[in-house]
Amino acid sequence: xxxxxxxxxxxxxxxxxxxxxxxxxxxxxxxxxxxxxxxxxxxxxxxxxxxxxxxxxxxxxxxxxxxxxxxxxxxxxxxxxxxxxxxxxxxxxxxxxxxxxxxxxxxxxxxxxxxxxxxxxxxxxxxxxxxxxxxxxxxxxxxxxxxxxxxxxxxxxxxxxxxxxxxxxxxxxxxxxxxxxxxxxxxxxxxxxxxxxxxxxxxxxxxxxxxxxxxxxxxxxxxxxxxxxxxxxxxxxxxxxxxxxxxxxxxxxxxxxxxxxxxxxxxxxxxxxxxxxxxxxxxxxxxxxxxx
Length: 292
Ligand SMILES: NC(=O)C1=CN([C@@H]2O[C@H](COP(=O)(O)OP(=O)(O)OC[C@H]3O[C@@H](n4cnc5c(N)ncnc54)[C@H](OP(=O)(O)O)[C@@H]3O)[C@@H](O)[C@H]2O)C=CC1
Ligand SMILES: Nc1nc(=O)c2c([nH]1)NC[C@@H]1CN(c3ccc(C(=O)N[C@@H](CCC(=O)O)C(=O)O)cc3)C=[N+]21
Fold this sequence. Notes:
Blueprint: E1 10-11, H1 14-30, E2 37-43, H2 47-62, E3 66-72, H3 78-90, E4 96-99, H4 109-115, H5 127-135, H6 143-155, E5 163-167, H7 174-183, E6 187-191, H8 198-202, E7 207-210, E8 228-231, E9 235-238, E10 245-248, H9 253-257, E11 262-263, H10 270-290
Helix pairs in contact: 1-10, 6-7, 6-10
5,10-Methenyltetrahydrofolate (GUE) binds near residues 123, 247, 266 and 272.
């Protein structure tokens, strides 16, 4: 039980929102004269990655798309991985390519990402798609940031002039979220591990996005009363029962929910949106590739 008082915040239900989004995608896929295909590449046997890849494959098939899973051994060489990416680039049945990160240490992820055709880059990680996003041009936007902005748009249809603080500056999450919030006319501040007085900065945020990978780092007294809190973190920590783990975000949820106006839970918040947006990006890529 929480000792932090009553939960005041309204919960943003990413699970329900993503189910709705997937239903819309399935309806659109059913009307296409071709079947969109998503290829997911997993190198090594990290148990957490395996679960994500299995979930992705299941949901891909559920919306009527083709799922191609490529599981490679941990000792795969850079050359073999690059050769697979090039094969997928050339395969007309494949409209989206996702290489699960992180890769084993002996592999060069930057070089692998650079080999993905920007037209099939459903993670939005290539320099071309990152550049399009920064320039405000149409392209493929990283799935987690896209999921966050869809949840925000639904609750805050006009974000003009709101102060947004994004904690975390990775290419996959923090940077693209900041770009999208800027497009929504927020005043955006990006924070990271070198930021001075992070709690005080966070207290200025009308919209606070936590994408740091530190379990429950953002405390209740870092949050402006009534603010909207988006918790991107997925951290596995020891659970109440010995030997079992549980999932927590980057925000101390109970404390934060007593202060915030709107908040995403973990699990059931941003996570399910990521997969739904991966399918949405695959549909977007397929329509562009087939429309030529
Ligand atoms: N829900 C979902 O679908 C997804 C969730 N995630 C989760 O989101 C989180 C972030 O992922 P990702 O961006 O890939 O992680 P990275 O490790 O790539 O980046 C973490 C960022 O957080 C910053 N940071 C780390 N510690 C602190 C600190 N103590 N104070 C302030 N800033 C800090 C780092 O700063 P610096 O740059 O200075 O080092 C860095 O910019 C993780 O928990 C990950 O599991 C990721 C992808 C999808
Ligand atoms: N190239 C690449 N792109 C990614 O987008 C990418 C990646 N690599 N590597 C790993 C991270 C992590 N990630 C998640 C996806 C879904 C959930 C998700 O569905 N979460 C559920 C619960 C999951 C559970 O219970 O384990 C939830 O939050 O409710 C979480 C995390 C994508 N990532």
